[in-house]
Amino acid sequence: MTILRPFVSHTVLNRLTIRSLPCQSTRFVQSAAAGQAFFAGQLIWHRRPETLRVRHYSTSPPSSQSSSRAPSTTTDSLQPGPDDQAAKVAEAQHEGDLSMPPGWEESANRNISSFNELPHKEFGFNQHMIVNAEFKEALRQVLWQFRAPIRYAFAYGSGVFPQSKKAATNPPPSPHPHPPEAVTQWQANGGKTIDFIFGVSYTQHWHSLNLQQHRDHYSFLGSFGSGLVSRVQDNIGAGTYFNPYIIVNGIMIKYGVVNLDTIYRDLSQWDTMYIAGRLQKPVKILRDDPRIRLGNQANLISALRAALLMLPEQFTERELYNKIAGLSYMGDLRMTFNAEDPKKVSNIVDAQMSNFRQLYYPLIEELPNVVYNDPKAATRDWMSSPDANCQMQQDMDPTKRGNMVRRLPPTFQSRLYNSYRRLFTGSQEDWTSLMSRANSEDPFSVRLASDFDKAIATQERLDKQVAVVVRRTIAWPTATQSMKSMLTAGFRKGWHYLMEKRKKGRKIKQQAKEAKKEEKEKAKAD
């Protein structure tokens, strides 16, 4: 079966340049910035050889695929400046430079310490979203107000990326007392708290320095010193310590502190999916780290595989991204108790379609069992349109789906294995050996489907069971993090946070009642 591969022309790429945008019109700035992010991420894929614009299913010879995706021999290295990297992608002239060479999952060095050790000089550029230059600088200036060393940092959430296409008719009051003009312009549809995650090397040392500089950021726990603060961070919940309702440079922020080892483990193992889930959606990386970039690429392709296991043979691009974006909300208490909009996931995807394409299109290209099955995907300019919802198709062959089961993150995979214990035909000793291997396996090792993996892959309700395992993975860490917030934020801030969520939940319930009432009235009228 021949499937046309998506095509992007150079004439399209020339319409936007990777350069700073002034804060003039918010709608123009946001749409242009999204377009920049998308085009920068796609340029390296456009430079593929012509033979890769048409893909066949498993009938394609492996040797031809390998030769056509050979990594570049250039030894040039790029520095980790987030938007500078995307700009260099646009400026690169070497034909055939691919950001993910064949076999990167199996051969990656997970103990890397520099960007030169990544599988390719452009590896992971799909993770870097481009935003307006002035807004990006405002975010970076926040980091400079912390003397404690921040090795990895990203901003995320509705304060950074819009979560709805609709313009707010009555936007809420801005939480920022004296924000920079760039923040005001970027959040013209309603000011929102900006959320950050700070990745640090040594938790207690970082809090010790930060307590000296910003004692007012901490609750009463800060009075007991950095030792207790770090123990609360590392031993309760998902290993994250949040300081909410903090004013920096006139901006209301919330920042979470996480050890780099905790981030990497969650990205590669899916222990809690607390940080991994956030990074499965578009974020603005402000400081990068080579090991975290490598781990996050594994996290993204794992999210893609998990979503595919929950989808039928035929589906749309939007359905795929809805599944991926929805992973981190499964088991989230806010969704369970209706403290979040039930349409939140679809709203996020609809508003950020181009960013989701940048994140996942290169990974979709790498998987041999999923293709775009739509004539639109072979036409010019289709990727620049957020409304181009292409049809997709995956190969339901048990071996190929079994390989996806086998290559899920080890901790998550062991939980899925346990839920299908009844299908295992070996002895108890064989089962113990299997589970030991699953729990200790290198996430970057070569992993091919066993008979047990194939048996799981053919289960009729596999989609439901994967969702159950996701919820079990997420539920306890998110619940304990919520309880921990009363300690880390303090009673006053914690109570304020709970009241905000309660108010939001009531508003959502009221909106749902009104929507049902309107539907009933409309049905009667018809």
UniProtKB/TrEMBL annotation:
<dbReference type="GO" id="GO:0016024">
    <property type="term" value="P:CDP-diacylglycerol biosynthetic process"/>
</dbReference>
<dbReference type="Pfam" id="PF09139">
    <property type="entry name" value="Tam41_Mmp37"/>
</dbReference>
<feature type="compositionally biased region" description="Polar residues">
    <location>
        <begin position="386"/>
        <end position="396"/>
    </location>
</feature>
<comment type="pathway">
    <text>Lipid metabolism.</text>
</comment>
<feature type="compositionally biased region" description="Basic and acidic residues">
    <location>
        <begin position="511"/>
        <end position="526"/>
    </location>
</feature>
<feature type="region of interest" description="Disordered">
    <location>
        <begin position="55"/>
        <end position="109"/>
    </location>
</feature>
<keyword id="KW-0594">Phospholipid biosynthesis</keyword>
<feature type="region of interest" description="Disordered">
    <location>
        <begin position="383"/>
        <end position="405"/>
    </location>
</feature>
<comment type="pathway">
    <text>Phospholipid metabolism; CDP-diacylglycerol biosynthesis; CDP-diacylglycerol from sn-glycerol 3-phosphate: step 3/3.</text>
</comment>
<dbReference type="GO" id="GO:0004605">
    <property type="term" value="F:phosphatidate cytidylyltransferase activity"/>
</dbReference>
<dbReference type="GO" id="GO:0005743">
    <property type="term" value="C:mitochondrial inner membrane"/>
</dbReference>
<keyword id="KW-0548">Nucleotidyltransferase</keyword>
<feature type="region of interest" description="Disordered">
    <location>
        <begin position="502"/>
        <end position="526"/>
    </location>
</feature>
<dbReference type="GO" id="GO:0032049">
    <property type="term" value="P:cardiolipin biosynthetic process"/>
</dbReference>
<comment type="similarity">
    <text>Belongs to the TAM41 family.</text>
</comment>
<keyword id="KW-1208">Phospholipid metabolism</keyword>
<keyword id="KW-0472">Membrane</keyword>
<keyword id="KW-0444">Lipid biosynthesis</keyword>
<protein>
    <recommendedName>
        <fullName>Phosphatidate cytidylyltransferase, mitochondrial</fullName>
        <ecNumber>2.7.7.41</ecNumber>
    </recommendedName>
</protein>
<feature type="compositionally biased region" description="Low complexity">
    <location>
        <begin position="58"/>
        <end position="75"/>
    </location>
</feature>
<keyword id="KW-0443">Lipid metabolism</keyword>
<keyword id="KW-0460">Magnesium</keyword>
<keyword id="KW-0999">Mitochondrion inner membrane</keyword>
<dbReference type="InterPro" id="IPR015222">
    <property type="entry name" value="Tam41"/>
</dbReference>
<keyword id="KW-0496">Mitochondrion</keyword>
<keyword id="KW-0808">Transferase</keyword>
